[in-house]
Design brief:
CATH architecture: Alpha-Beta Barrel
Radius of gyration: 19 Å
Bound molecules: zinc ion
CATH class: Alpha Beta
CATH superfamily: Aldolase class I
Shape: globular
Number of helices: 12
Strand content: 15-25%
């Protein structure tokens, strides 16, 4: 048993309370490798933004759960070395799909876990979430739950269609499970293809797809039922078209990739939405930078020469999200 407190990590309770009162959101960035983690920590340290490091099932399979946990511990020390005296870093399990996975993360130094029972029948989702909450709270680990279904594909999480969260269920769900935050479905979606072309309109000038707006009426109804309760948005990458264009002009093929416009996320961040998950955008930044080096310098074979620029591009992206979209800069001085 390792407590996250010994590792210098924090849970989400205070982060979320401050974010809701302050009208901003905490970035939750997924990480799978060293360059990505370096970029997240550098961006957070330079902007003094609280940050949530997320580990998905795909990341655990790719990089090993033990190694990722030690990397997060190293990240706290790296943050201090960068001059961030009081780093506010949370290590969070993304989309835990069983009690056992959540328990192993709690036992091994994670400060927050998500139990995703959203694909289960309502009562089973409640029972599973409650079991995880009862275990995690003994160790002051916070728990995110999910109600409603997001469309899209992310690692092993996939669904054909989204089902918006039903506002009439949220009080019962939050009360009976005791969860600390709730991921909801209001039209965000996993992956770089968040919407089918037929769900979008096309900008007549650029020919690019314009996605349908998020269901802010559903968000408002949920906030009315649960005033001040921390709300989480998954699948909130914006799929920057400049990265898609670089990829497509340097040997890639991402036709009609489309995400959530940043102005909608900016609006959400000012509400009770206090955690916004961003993963695909950093994948796009990484891939665009690597493809550019490969195209411009075909003789390059030192991974540091293409992973380095990829890391720089991700750092730039993370800082942009923190300062321009979520407003969490300067909130962890
Ligand atoms: Zn997700």
């Amino acid at each position: 048993m390792v407590s996250y407190k010994e590792l210098g990590l924090v849970n989400t309770r205070e982060m979320f309370a401050k974010a809701i009162n302050g009208g901003y959101a905490i970035p939750a960035f997924n990480f799978n490798n060293m360059e990505q983690l370096q970029a997240i920590i550098k961006a957070s340290a330079e902007t003094k933004s609280p940050v949530i490091l997320q580990v998905s099932k795909g990341a655990r399979n790719y990089a090993n759960q033990t190694l990722l946990r030690y990397m997060a511990q190293g990240a706290v020390e790296y943050a201090k070395e960068l001059g961030w005296e009081n780093p506010q870093i949370c290590l969070h399990l993304d989309h835990g799909d069983s009690f056992e996975v959540c328990k192993s993360c709690v036992d091994f130094g994670f400060s927050s876990v998500m139990i995703d029972g959203s694909s289960l029948p309502y009562e089973e989702n409640i029972a599973l979430t409650k079991k995880v909450v009862e275990y995690a709270h003994q160790f002051d680990v916070t728990v995110e739950a999910e109600l409603g279904v997001l469309a899209g594909v992310e690692d092993d999480v996939q669904a054909e269609e989204s089902h918006y969260t039903k506002p009439e269920e949220v009080i019962d769900f939050a009360t009976r499970t005791g969860c600390d935050s709730l991921a909801i479905s209001i039209g965000t979606s996993h992956g770089a293809y968040k919407f089918k072309p037929e769900q979008c309109t096309r900008d007549p000038q650029t020919g690019k797809l314009v996605p349908p707006p998020l269901a802010f009426d559903v968000l408002d109804a949920i906030m009315e039922k649960l005033p001040g309760f921390p709300i989480v948005l998954h699948g909130s990458s914006s799929v920057p078209q400049e990265y898609v264009d670089i990829i497509n002009t340097h040997g890639g093929n991402l036709p009609d990739a489309v995400g959530i416009p940043e102005e909608q996320l900016r609006k959400a961040a000012k509400s009770a939405v206090c955690k916004i998950n961003i993963d695909s955008d950093s994948r796009l930044a990484f891939t665009a930078a690597v493809r550019k080096v490969f195209a411009d310098k075909p003789g390059e074979f030192d991974p540091r020469k293409y992973c380095g620029p990829a890391r720089d591009e991700m750092t730039k992206l993370y800082k942009h999200k923190i300062i321009e979209v979520l407003g969490s800069d300067g909130k962890a001085e």
